[in-house]
Amino acid sequence: MRRRLLTAFISVGLIVVLLASCLLVYGCKKKTEEEWQKDYVTYGYVDDGAADISIGVLADVHVMAETQAVDMTCPDYKSWEAHGQKMLGLSESILKTAVDRIIAESDFKVVLVSGDNSDDGGETSHRVVAAELKRLENAGIKVYTIPGNHDLNNKSCTYAGGKATYTNPTTEVEFASIYADFGYNTTDSLEFYKRADASSAERKTASFSIGDNLSYVADLPGDYRLIAIDMCNYVANDYLRDTDGSYAAAGYEVDSEGYVLVEGERFPFVSGYLWDEDGSYAAAGYRVNEQGYVLDEDGDRISVPGRHDGAMTQSLLLWAKSKIEEAKRAGKTPIGMMHFPLLQHFGPLVNAANGAVNDPKGYVVAEVLADAGMNYIFTGHIHMQDDNIYTSAKGNKILDINSASLCNFPTPVRYFRAKGDDVYVRTWNMDRIEEKYLPAYLTAEEKAKIKSDFRDYSVDYINGSMFAKVMNKIDIDLVYKLLKKFGIEKKGANAAAVTDLATSIFNDVILRFLNMPLYKKDAGSGQSVESIANSYGIELPSTGYSSVFDLAMSYVVGVYGGDENASANEPRAALLKYSIYSAFRLISDFDLFGKMHRLNAAIPTISLSATVDTLYGTGTFDICGNGLLIGVLSVLNISALKKLNINSASDPYETLASVVKIVKDTGLANKYGIDINKYVVADKISKYGFIRLGTILDGDLYGKLTLGLMNDAIEGQSTYAYLGGKADTAVPDNNLRINTKTMAYIALQ
After folding, report:
1. How far apart are CA 613 and CA 616, in angstroms?
2. Which pLDDT band, with edges at 50, 70 and 90, does 239 fall under?
3. More exposed terminus of the chain, fewer Cβ within 10 Å: N or C?
4. Contact at 8 Å (CB) between 447 and 439?
């Protein structure tokens, strides 16, 4: 309840800031003034000399084979492709080009492929990937792979005939058969985990059954041994979840195409559905919306564990531990491969639930693997270049080398080369696609752009797909939902007026902010971040960015590419601050509260004009003197707020002081080293009540908050406590040399 209450209070003061900054709060590598036009570096292949072993790594290749998709121009396919930041239409051609270049240009003896080989688990796509991996083996390069969360028992589609229809997915047995040459055979592999109760004899055979886990152990060239850990959760199409999160009760009905039938209505299955045993609306104790999604007490959607969540078990972890210890006793250096990251590569403020392997009850996976003797593990899943060293409570270290997706910027091939006491970990960006592999559906203009500058094409693709994803999350339905919390619903006599208001908020505030030009030269006669700042006598630094969204994406590209960092001295820091300030100006000019008041008289007509003037002048944002705090909290339809009995007569300064006390009492501020008194002034006697927004943006946004969000070294802060040990986030993300005895590292050019 305290967490929900705290969220409600903070939302009042920062909801617009979050809207403005949710896309912007990312770190990025420091640049000189003339480097602002490029937000990424392209790394070529570097030969560091003779090596004891040379290993290439491909992560998240996400192939959507042309022979599976068939029609990559139909609306259903385009809709699927737009749901993630992956160049699915080019995924096959990127993989083929990477295979060509690995064979022709590298000295790799081994290639590891860490899962999500197919985008939707289609058998056709898996067979295309296997054929490319076989080309590597035919060239003398040994290949090993494991499945990722997309690979098994997924809802696989073909788009032949101009629409999405289900096609053959891939089971555990089929995956092991398709990739038999790449780890799932007794010639290459020593042992297969399969399941907790598997006998020693069973684990020595390469025969698999439905439900088997596909972890295994294999010796690599020289004195190295691979521990391949399959810890993904493969939710099949017809699995439904019961209230306890287990596989669902019997009795539901599914039609011939795999859609769940509820009272005659068809719904596609997703892991967030809960149903009763009779197939009707939801299991006891839950509420659901009309699509069957489970709702919490405030009507917000919640989810249950699914294929995007880890499934590490105690038995699997202890098996991996024993295999690492066996390798050490045999004089082998154990190297791990796992689809999910070992460590959080997002910071402690995010700590994404499915951003790292889950820890079975009573165990910390990183602690167990490090103390068993594993120093290196290759992972994927989160599609970003990020390296991280974990030090256990006993002082043992393990490097989690997380690689971005091959079919998305920065299209990386990672590689690991060991020689003597040194290990080199490098990135090799695929900066072109061989023309012969380009799919036929591409327009002549697209082909020309790809051939001219594939790196720029891939960055532009991220920009476009991210904007589509943002619009999928921040759509007009979200506006209706927010208005409903203010007692404004689209029904009855107000329906048309509410529709008009929601549409106007979406177009004239949200879209206008995202598309707002940074500079007057790009704005024509309209507003820009610069023109608003200039009206207060503030000059902005000159950069090559054009709009608020363009600025945001420069940070995102940096996160994908790795080695991101941030500093309050960068020109973008000023652009970020005044972009966020401009969001308040848009809301003030829009007269949001006045327009809502016309539809719900309980909402006060709050003017933000003077508040915005003060914000630009002093960096402080008033939330008490203008009636904002009480005016909003007294009408918001949130269950936790109702228990506080806040009404229009409540004292705003006492209320804000209570918020500050709650933050202190919960320990949230101390947890992240934040002095709440530095940012929020709540003085009941002097009648002060404001947020020092400028202080936040000028200082800790590029310090503790950025580290907390994106988990890379920010201005000297390189470590934070992580479970039982410590995570060093300062590790270079693309090119580094490590001493095998001490695990000390240096960045390489």
Report:
1. 5
2. very low
3. C
4. no
